[in-house]
Amino acid sequence: MMKLGTYLPLNERAYWKDSQELVCVMIIPEAPDTVTFCFKTADDSWFLYQPGQFISLELPVGPQPILRTYTLSSSPSRPISISVTVKAQADSIGTRWMIDNLKVGDRLRAYGPGGIFTFTKYSADKYLFIGAGSGITPMMSMTRYLFDNGEHTDIALINCARRPSELLFANEMRRMSQRVPDIKLHFVVEEDDPYAAWAGYRGRLNQLMLELMAPDYMEREIFCCGPEPFMRAVRDVLNVAGFDMDHYHEESFHAPIRTEEQVPEYDDVVPSEEATAHLTFALSGVEADCRETDSILTVAREAGLNIPSACQFGVCGTCKVKKTKGEVHMVHNGGITDDEIADGFVLACCSQPIGAVEVEV
Ligand SMILES: Cc1cc2nc3c(=O)[nH]c(=O)nc-3n(C[C@H](O)[C@H](O)[C@H](O)COP(=O)(O)OP(=O)(O)OC[C@H]3O[C@@H](n4cnc5c(N)ncnc54)[C@H](O)[C@@H]3O)c2cc1C
Ligand code: FES
Q: Where does the FAD-binding FR-type domain start and stop, copy by copy (predicted)?
């Protein structure tokens, strides 16, 4: 990385690759157990991504590094550095390691960017961004981008947290909304901080609150990210109001919880609990018998092979492998494109082998 304070124009830099070494350049405490880490590339290349996308970071937690996926809270309108804002839950391994160990100057390998949760795919006159907890990170990236874009884009932005002290990016959001009439900002908390007055909305987000904060929400393209019960509550409000759910988009940081009715029907062969399958890992020369209901990732691990993986529910794309023979049943959550599938790629974490299958691992 070049010397601090040196200016290098964008047109003299390369742009970053799918796998890149990053250098941590700044660490900003945001809220309890929540920290923003800013990175530059080790070779001074610039970052190209869509606002709302994520990267996966390789964290040297133990003898085997682990991968964790984080949304880029930064905006691609400022392409020289990126940031992720991470919140460690109780028992966290990867995120806790970052908060306790990562220092300015440390290097980490990053994979990505990936993800389809971005307003850029859904052009609209008006947006409604709703985020809860660390789920506000994609909303922050998209709002920063639209603000930097310099055009008047109508955004209703709702930032929810347990307490006011846990609201992420509150000051920067206030600054942006005070400078332009187009960003209508609202905060919702479940309870007050002790000994501190709170004049904003209090309680769980409901229909009445939504009508007060964004009276024209039925006309908006809606993006929502947060814990599953939070997103379910938002979906319920919208469904009751008769909102056209084609204009609702959400991202889950964890495996989606689906009711029986929500499980989609697939037109390929569905794996059977009783049926056996056979996996050939062509590059390593390893073969394994398994059940059709096992994932390729699980079978590889049991056979002592390492397929890099992060989310393990088909969203981050880290575990993409090339299938050279046979069929799989794959239930992904957007971590692979139709073109990649047509080229023979599958996501190992959410693909189950039907009969004999060979992969390039
Ligand atoms: C597309 C995508 C984007 C993401 N963006 C962000 C982001 O911007 N910021 C961020 O902080 N995280 C983000 N995540 C989540 C992140 O990737 C990790 O899954 C999360 O931080 C947990 O990893 P960990 O190492 O902290 O905990 P782990 O070591 O994986 O988990 C330890 C234990 O904590 C539990 N646990 C983990 N997370 C939670 C939770 N939220 N609530 C309750 N229990 C939990 C686990 O079930 C496990 O028992 C994103 C995930 C995805 C898929
Ligand atoms: S590990 Fe994220 S898609 Fe498989």
A: 17-120
- Dihedral pair phi/psi, residue 260, rounded to 5°: -60, -40
Q: Inform me whether the pLDDT recorded for 215 exceeds 90.
A: yes
Q: Per residue in 254-284, is it b (16+ CB within 10 Å) or e — as a string? A: eeeeeeeeeeeeeeeeebeeeeebebbbeee
Ligand 2 pocket, residue 319 CB under 6 Å: yes
Pocket of ligand 2 contains residue 315 by CB under 6 Å: yes
What pLDDT, in 10s, does the model give residues 125-143? Answer: 999 999 999 999 999 999 9
Which pLDDT value is given to residue 16?
86
What are the boundaries of each domain within the chain?
Answer: 10-114, 119-254, 276-359
Residue 5's pLDDT is: 81
Strands 221-225 and 201-202: unpaired
Protein residue with least CA distance to atom 3, ligand 2: 314
Tallying the residues shown for the chain, one arrives at: 361
Select from 3.30.870.10, 3.10.20.30, 3.40.50.1110, 2.40.50.1070 the CATH code of 276-359. 3.10.20.30
What is the CATH number assigned to the segment(s) 10-114?
A: 2.40.30.10
Instruction: Give the distance (Å) from ligand 1 centre to CA of residue 253.
Output: 7
Percent of the chain with pLDDT over 90: 86
Q: How many angstroms separate the alpha carbon of residue 92 from the centre of ligand 1? A: 7
Q: What is the pLDDT of residues 153-186, one digit of tens each?
A: 999 999 999 999 999 999 999 999 999 999 999 9
Ligand 1 site: residues with CB under 6 angstroms?
54, 68-71, 84-89, 91-95, 115, 134, 137, 251, 253, 311, 315-316
- pLDDT computed for residue 327 by the predictor: 94
Q: Are the beta carbons of 35 and 99 closer than 8 angstroms? A: yes
Please give the pLDDT value at position 267: 64
Q: What value does the mean pLDDT take over residues 87-112?
A: 96
In the CATH hierarchy, which top-level class contains the domain 119-254? alpha beta
